[in-house]
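Backbones bend. Shown next:

***
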Amino acid sequence: MKRAHSAQLSGALNTGVARREVWAWAMYDFANSGYTTVIITAVFSMYFVAEVCQNAAWATLAWTTALAISYALIMVTAPLLGVWADARASKKRALVVTTLGCVLTTAALAFVGRGDVALAMVLIVCSNYCFGTGENVIAAFLPELARPEAVGRVSGWGWSLGYCGGLVALGLVLAYVSYAQALQQAMTTIVPVAVLITAGLFLIAALPTFYWLRERAQPHHRSIIWRAVASDVLQSIRQLKTYPDLQQFLWSLLCYQAGIQTVIALAAIYAQQVMGFDMQQTITLVLVVNITAAFGAFSLGYVQDWLGHRCTILLTLVAWLLTVVLASQSRSVALFWVVANLVGLGLGSSQSAGRALVAYLSPAGRQAEFFGLWGLAMKASAMIGPLGYGVVAWLSGGDHRLAMMITGLYFIAGIVLVWRVDVNRGRERALA
């Protein structure tokens, strides 16, 4: 059995790629997941609204605005960084810089207290920018590691290990929060320590990636002029017309990821404002969601290679649509827990499947460039979705149920656009 598993693993990897290197690559997903689960989803978002902004009517909009600014910056720089990384063969160097940037600015959130709205927003912009940029860079390594027919399962390994990282971070934070609440400590004392735990875990868990992940790309022997880089990016966008199915999928990804990013960014706030959850309950909820997300990412990676990329994504989007409808109508805590676990299954599988399909449809030698465009679509969606939710919640006088219901429109648009993608034709065009 062990020998068969080893052969299966080796058959999924490109020639010369060691299993230890794939593990090191996947460990970055483990490392950075603590940031999204603790800072963006479970703890700091709720702390920002309830403590930093003192539950002001504009608090949710302020939170989503900070996220939108960070994603707008990534939209501008991600394609530029992709072209630069390809030309200089410097993906790993960029990964180190963005990781350190995220770790340091996340740790600085420990100094945010009541009323420090501007400081909190600036640090969220900076830390989330570094996180999102590093996420793009690590994804660009995937085509170098996995065979084309196995990108789904290898991507799933990374996503599932990533959710395990989220579990570890949440488990450590939950243990501390439970201990601190037993001592009747205030949130202004508890959250800074939780933030430092998250930053420290990110740095430590990323060390295997820095040590074992190889830079296989060869630098282009030409100087880079940033005006020319910008021209290359525009050329890349124009050349998407020659890859119509990749272009179509990026449009669909822009739509449905707007819904997913909304749920990620507003989950704790929704649980607190609508369902009345406290911090300990919210962390427990997100911890359980990460378990189902890890299962979804791992299992659907194999299903994707068997069932097909498009069918897998369509399946997950239907599940997402059902989830947001149920969440907007949920009145009982029990039903909300069911909804949360549906979120976990959809979250892990859809994120993994999307990354794998971009790798499958991208032409060889230009992966970082096209993953830069993938990052552009991802961050545009992360800007549009949560900001739209914040505006609806603000204009409706805090009606989070209405805002959640409107989020379902993103998934309907995604389903329609994914339906029109011809994966086989797109793969043939990439090979040509």
